[in-house]
Structures are given as structure tokens and as C-alpha cells.
Amino acid sequence: MRFAVIGSGWRSEFHLRMAQAAPDRLQVVGVVTQTDAEAARITARWGVRAVRTVGEVLALGPDFVVAAVSWPAMPGVVRELVAAGAKVLAETPPAPDLDGLRALWNDVGASGLVQVGEQYTLMPGHASRLAVVRDGVVGTPSSVEIASTHLYHAVALVRAFLDVDMDETVVSARSFVAPLVDPLTFDGWAVDPQPGPRTTTIATLDFGDGRMGLYDFVENQWWNPLRARRIVIRGSLGEVVDDAVTRLTADGPVTSPIMYRRTGVDMNLEGNEVVNASFDGRVVYRNPWVGSRLSEDDIAVAAHLAAVGRWARDDGPAPYPLAQGCQDHALGLAIEESARTGADVRVAKEVWV
Questions:
Q1: How far apart are CA 101 and CA 259, in angstroms?
Q2: Could you give the CA distance from residue 64 to residue 309 in angstroms, rounded to a whole number?
Q3: Helix axis angle, 151-162 relative to 124-134, nearest 10°?
């Protein structure tokens, strides 16, 4: 898959790292940077061509273009790419606020040229749980509790496990501040970490018909090793708690684990990565990037890039259309609004529906 990248920040480097790890399957044809200094840095670090304009990078013939720019810049970049007829993968969120989402949809929604970079359902753990849930093992799913990632990413996971599309939703959120040590952040390990105020946001998302999401996120939960990630999917016949699946069988309630085959453990010399996941003796997930030694989050990013590439070549379905990304962010914005005001927020059917 040949793709180009707009932007040279840490988000763009996620995609450059995927191409470096799997050069036989992913190729970066060019990166658009704002300055000559950034162009020189990108070329030296990643060995890819750097240019200064969208027109120059489109002339290199990418299958699609990754827009990895700041929130305020994203809508303008997406509009420019769509106007040029390019197929686009927009990083999350596609616009900063609700008015921006609506305006972007009105301008480019009908083009069908925009996908959104929502990869969380492709992570090995979530993909395995999703396979078990969609097989009906725990019956009809009715609630998802997630304490893992923030706002639109968490919303995307909740909607996937509940199979919720664009239903009207009532959001109720509250925030709480308490001391917490943050030994590890985006900037690295702290020398002498001390407890400081950190905000926890709890929210319910009522999708109707008894379907509910419970959102639980503390600041810096992505990095902080003192706060675990957790997910619970409850259904009519049982529940999934992280990797433990409990359900009702003819012999009564039974709990079985989702098991991961990981190489590089003890005397295994096959590498260091997750190979597959199984449940009750059958494989429910296979890592499509075995041999690349990618982390689980990187596996998901690479898988999403490949899916967008297949879509761009008319060889596969749209992996995450713009409307889905807009819905995720609209619900994430509602969580923030409800936490800020202390009032319920109703998200009605929007223009992208």
C-alpha cells in the first residue's frame, strides 16, 4: 500500500514507523512538512522523501493520504485533499468541535473519500473479545464498561461491542479530582514523582433499548502504570471481563479465558510478539503482522492502514467512514459538556446520519 502523510509531528511518525517495520506491505511515498528543517529531519530519521505542498505529494501517486495534523488544521487539510480527488485517512478527531464536524460533513461527506483513523477495535485484545461477543457467546450485549482510553476512542469501542450505529444517546457525566502519582508520562519517566491533582471522569451513555456504556477515565491513564486498563461486556447469557468469558451452558455457568500465544517467552526464539488468540480451543484472532515485532497498538495502526489501502484500491470495504468518526467525537464532546455542566446532554441524530 502506497500512502503519503501530511504533517511531521508524533502522530505522523506513528505511520512512518509502520512502513519502516513492514516495508514489503506499506510504503510512504512522501511527507508534507511546513519547514525545510522539518523536511530534513524527517528524511534523515525515516529515509522518506519530504515535500512542501499537497500538490507535490499527490504527484507521487499515493493510494491514499494520511492527514496527521493538529485539530484546528484537520478540516482544512481534509477539504484540500478531497478537492484534489484524493482518498483520505484523517486522524482523530476529524474536526475540533461540533460545528466543525457539521461543516466538514456538509463540505466533504457526500464525496465518500474520507476514512478516520480509529484503530482500537483492531488491537489484539479488543479484536479477540469482539470476535467472541459477535459469535453470541454471551448472548445479546447490553452494556460495556471501559476504563482504558479517552473520549472518542472509548466511544468507538463501546459502540462496536454494542453494535450501536447512530442512535440518539443521552450522556450523563461527572468529574472528580484526587491526588495521584504520575511516574510515566508522554515525556518519559519522572525523576521524583509526587502525587498531584488528577481528574477522573465517569459517564453513562444511554443508547436506548437497555443498551448502555459506562465510561471511566483518569488523566494520563494511557501512560500511568499505576492505573490498569479494564473492559467489561455484559450480555444476556454472560459477560466478558478483560480476558475472562463467563456464560451459561447446558452444564451451568462456565468461565473460560481468552488465551494469547506470545513468542519470545522463556526459551522461545521465534521473536517477541503476539501470534494469535484462542477461546475454547479455536483461534479467534491472528496477528496479520507476525515478523514485524510491532506492539499491540502498532499492530492495530498497521492493520488499519492496510484496510484503508484496500478500500482505496476498491479491493475492500470502507474501514471507518467519516460519519462514524464524527459520531464518536460528538459523543465524546457530550461527555465533556455533561461533566462541565453537571447536566445530561442529548445527542440527537446529526447531519452525517
A1: 40
A2: 7
A3: 30
In sequence order, the 6+-apart residues with CB closer than 8 A to the CB of 305 are: 1, 3, 15, 18, 26, 66, 89
pLDDT bracket for residue 269 (50, 70, 90): confident
Identify the band that residue 173 occupies on the pLDDT scale cut at 50, 70 and 90. Answer: very high
pLDDT tens by residue, 17-29: 999 999 999 999 9
**pTM given for the model:** 0.96
Backbone angles phi, psi at 225, to 5 degrees: -75, -5
Give me the pLDDT at residue 353, please. 92
Secondary structure of the chain as H, E, C letters: CEEEEECCCHHHHHHHHHHHHCCCCCEEEEEECCCHHHHHHHHHHHCCCEECCHHHHHCCCCCEEEECCCCCCHHHHHHHHHHCCCCEEECCCCCCCHHHHHHHHHHHHHHCCEEECCCHHHCHHHHHHHHHHHCCCCCCEEEEEEECCCHHHHHHHHHHHHCCCCCCEEEEEEEEEEEECCCEECCEECCCCCCEEEEEEEEEEEEECCEEEEEEEECCCCCCCCCCCEEEEEECCEEEECCEEEEEECCEEEEEEEEEEECCCCCCCCCCCEEEEEECCEEEEECCCCCCCCCHHHHHHHHHHHHHHHHHCCCCCCCCEHHHHHHHHHHHHHHHHHHHHCCCEEECCCCCC
Measured at the CA of 52, the angle between CA 47 and CA 54, to 5 degrees, comes to: 105
pLDDT band at 280 (very low <50, low <70, confident <90, very high): very high
Q: What is the pLDDT of residue 187?
A: 86
**C-alpha 220 chain-centroid distance:** 16
In percent, the amount of the chain with pLDDT more than 70 equals 100
The dihedral over CA atoms of 193, 197, 199, 200, expressed in degrees to the nearest 10, equals 70
277's CB contacts (< 8 A; 6+ apart) are 124, 125, 127, 128, 258, 259, 260, 261, 283, 284, 285
Q: 38 vs 35, 42, 51, CA distance in Å?
A: 5, 6, 10
